[in-house]
């Protein structure tokens, strides 16, 4: 293969930096039909009425439970926390109910489509990912696109990898893609020397250098997969809606092998469409962006989405971490419609494989979502946009509210049991008795559980009455058993996640930064020792909670057992959550079967074939020795340099200077590898002159 730079000619677009507070614009004309607008209004009215109605009922009932005689200060705190939580679950229920009702009716009106005159870029941002999986996905998608849309798409692998061994592993794996290059669907590769602003900066770097040649871009994640038909549909719909800046698909989960992965995958396939229909209905043209599996109008993104830099230090200042919500907000503020099309099939992603992996991911997501509080009250944001931002924050703050509610309820019980009540604390002719209405409390508890579990019931019923979907889940019996099992396991895992998220929120509020780590792509199997170290605090807290409640009353013990039980079992539950072997019994009996598992779609089948045909690549522990042993890789690596954002020859760059000094004083390549710091090794590999010095000083073979 001829070693040449695998990048097209630059086609820059200007991307001006925006401020938090700027003037907004009205939606562009012809963005949406009258019927679509009317449907959105009715959907929002439905959500409002159901949420307000249910919330009012719950708050009034809880007030009645507590106010048999008079409400104490601690009970007022309990009522306040209960009200916030009940409003939140009522809002979630209203969206699921709306989605369920929409799901029952046939889809009569199809969204407008027209053949696009433009070419679309498919962006693959990667950061220290397993390159073999990316190669397999691109091969599968490229093969599909060459059949259905030759000349319409181009792939860009946008690497932000900042470790030398991972960088060379990427190049070694990706060379195969360029050896089979086809101009009707080319694949390009670019690694940034400076990964400032993380994924948002990675995308922005592409826009400002090559975005001018492509009117649209489909943004994927490292674990994403889309069929050619899905991408064609996205391009056609964007072409038919000149006022729309972004169209988000509903990604479904695939390739889960662990128990926790299968639980998420089943829930995503069975319950996810119900939630998604409800969200799409009331979002209208003010929808959200999840960072991947979506098409974006490049010019609109360039004009609107250079994110503001927040004043102050991390975790709340600096660059915005969770960029996707804010990019959708800025697009909408600039007058571009943001749409969520739930009917586009064969859009996929993968899930974290274990409970501990979810907790690690939540650490990063939580910081990003809480950081959004700095933007929640920004000027001229659409009201649905503010709800998206607030919902993202509440997805983690709700853990604080629920745990606080439990602890306050426990404190009330302790107070009633151990503290002598002051029956005449205030001047009064009658004593104040600390009592509550137990029968009314039980009724409210049943209603609350019904509201929480109803979305699962909606998803189960919607799948049950659709015989084709029901068969994909294994038939009505397996569908029902899987739904019950998923509900039980979710109830056990929920308190562990609640306590973990509470700790994460406190950690961030204390000012600690989360860092930036890639998501785990293996089966999540951890040893019992690793799991014990991760969850011993949760286990101890569960036993303390159970002990206190048992000491107060057996009724209180049983009341809190769904929470304390999951915490006490957190170590075995977490151990069971990861590992393909541990999930095998559930797979054998057909539990948690997902539609794509038994009969995968053509694109998923193609991906699996490509993965099986792609040899496992050995990790590169010594990058310089690897380059010395692989002349072709060395030539190809040098052909990609210098990068656009690499240090200029006359610019002082300390790691490059020290690396060159170590080259001159090294006795062998092995000795040089041991003495180089990671930043120096990256600097060496980023400079063609530095790599060639290895030959000058006799450390490597001749690579002409």
Automatic annotation (TrEMBL):
Residues in Glycosyltransferase 2-like domain copies: 218-409
Designated name of the protein: Glucans biosynthesis glucosyltransferase H
Upper classification of the organism: Bacteria, Pseudomonadati, Pseudomonadota, Gammaproteobacteria, Thiotrichales
Annotated compartments: Cell inner membrane
Highest taxon of source: Bacteria
Gene Ontology MF, one: hexosyltransferase activity
Membrane topology: Multi-pass membrane protein
Keywords: Cell inner membrane, Cell membrane, Glycosyltransferase, Membrane, Transferase, Transmembrane, Transmembrane helix
Coiled-coil region list: none
Listed pathway(s): Glycan metabolism; osmoregulated periplasmic glucan (OPG) biosynthesis
Entry GO terms, CC: plasma membrane
Family as reported in the entry's similarity comment: Belongs to the glycosyltransferase 2 family. OpgH subfamily.
Taxonomic source organism: Methylophaga aminisulfidivorans MP
Pfam family, one: Glyco_trans_2_3
């Amino acid at each position: 293969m001829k070693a040449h730079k695998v990048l097209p000619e630059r086609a820059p677009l200007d991307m001006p930096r925006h401020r938090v507070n700027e003037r907004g614009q009205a939606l562009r004309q012809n963005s949406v039909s009258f019927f679509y607008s009317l449907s959105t209004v009715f959907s929002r009215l439905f959500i409002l009425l159901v949420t307000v109605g249910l919330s009012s009922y719950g708050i009034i009932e809880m007030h009645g439970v507590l106010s048999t005689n008079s409400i104490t200060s601690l009970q007022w705190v309990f009522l306040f926390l209960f009200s916030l939580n009940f409003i939140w679950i009522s809002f979630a229920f209203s969206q699921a109910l709306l989605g369920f009702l929409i799901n029952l009716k046939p889809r009569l009106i199809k969204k407008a489509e027209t053949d696009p005159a433009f070419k679309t870029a498919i962006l693959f941002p990667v950061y220290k990912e397993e390159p073999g999986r990316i190669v397999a996905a691109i091969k599968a998608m490229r093969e599909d696109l060459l059949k259905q849309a030759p000349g319409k798409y181009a792939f860009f692998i946008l690497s932000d990898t900042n470790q030398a061994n991972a960088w060379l592993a990427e190049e070694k794996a990706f060379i195969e893609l360029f050896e089979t290059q086809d101009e009707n669907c080319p694949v390009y590769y670019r690694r940034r020397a400076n990964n400032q602003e993380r994924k948002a900066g990675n995308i922005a770097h592409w826009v400002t250098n090559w975005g001018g040649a492509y009117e649209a871009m489909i943004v994927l994640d490292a674990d994403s997969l889309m069929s050619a038909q899905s991408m064609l549909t996205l391009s056609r719909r964007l072409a038919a809606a000149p006022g729309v800046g972004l169209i988000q698909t509903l990604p479904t989960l695939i390739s889960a092998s662990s128990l926790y992965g299968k639980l998420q995958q089943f829930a995503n396939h069975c319950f996810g469409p119900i939630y998604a229909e409800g969200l799409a209905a009331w979002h209208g043209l003010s929808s959200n962006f999840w960072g991947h599996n979506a098409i974006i109008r490049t010019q609109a993104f360039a004009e609107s989405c250079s994110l503001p830099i927040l004043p102050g230090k991390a975790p709340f200042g600096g660059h915005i971490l969770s960029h996707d919500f804010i990019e959708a907000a800025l697009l909408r503020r600039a007058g571009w419609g943001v749409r969520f099309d739930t009917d586009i099939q064969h859009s996929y992603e993968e899930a974290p494989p274990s409970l501990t992996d979810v907790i690690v991911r939540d650490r990063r997501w939580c910081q990003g979502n809480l950081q959004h509080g700095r933007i929640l009250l920004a000027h001229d944001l659409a009201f649905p946009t503010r709800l998206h931002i607030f919902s993202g924050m509440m997805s983690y703050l709700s853990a604080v509210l629920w745990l606080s509610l439990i602890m306050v309820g426990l404190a009330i019980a302790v107070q009633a049991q151990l503290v002598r009540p002051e029956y005449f604390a205030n001047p009064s002719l009658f004593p104040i008795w600390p009592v509550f209405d137990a029968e009314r409390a039980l009724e409210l508890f049943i209603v609350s559980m019904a509201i929480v579990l109803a979305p699962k019931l909606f998803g189960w019923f919607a799948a049950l009455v659709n015989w084709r979907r029901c068969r994909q889940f294994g038939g009505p019996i397996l569908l029902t058993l899987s739904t019950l099992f998923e509900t039980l396991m979710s109830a056990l895992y929920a308190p562990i996640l609640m306590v973990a998220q509470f700790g994460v929120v406190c950690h961030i509020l204390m000012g600690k930064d989360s860092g930036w780590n890639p998501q785990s792509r293996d089966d999540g199997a951890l040893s019992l020792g690793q799991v014990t170290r991760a969850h011993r605090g949760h286990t101890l807290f569960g036993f303390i909670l159970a002990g206190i409640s048992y000491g107060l009353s057996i009724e209180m013990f049983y009341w809190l057992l769904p929470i304390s039980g999951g915490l006490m079992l957190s170590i075995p539950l977490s151990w069971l959550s990861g590992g393909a072997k541990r999930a095998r019994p559930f797979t054998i009996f057909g539990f948690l079967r997902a539609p794509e598992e038994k009969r995968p779609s053509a694109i998923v089948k193609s991906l699996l074939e490509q993965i099986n045909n792609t040899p496992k690549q050995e990790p590169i522990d010594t990058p310089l020795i690897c380059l010395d042993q692989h002349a072709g890789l060395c030539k190809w690596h040098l052909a990609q340099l210098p990068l656009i954002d690499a240090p200029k020859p006359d610019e002082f760059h300390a790691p490059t200077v020290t690396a060159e000094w170590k080259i001159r004083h090294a006795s062998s390549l092995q000795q040089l590898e041991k003495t180089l710091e990671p930043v120096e090794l990256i600097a060496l590999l980023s400079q063609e002159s530095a790599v060639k010095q290895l030959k000058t000083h006799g450390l490597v073979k001749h690579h002409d």
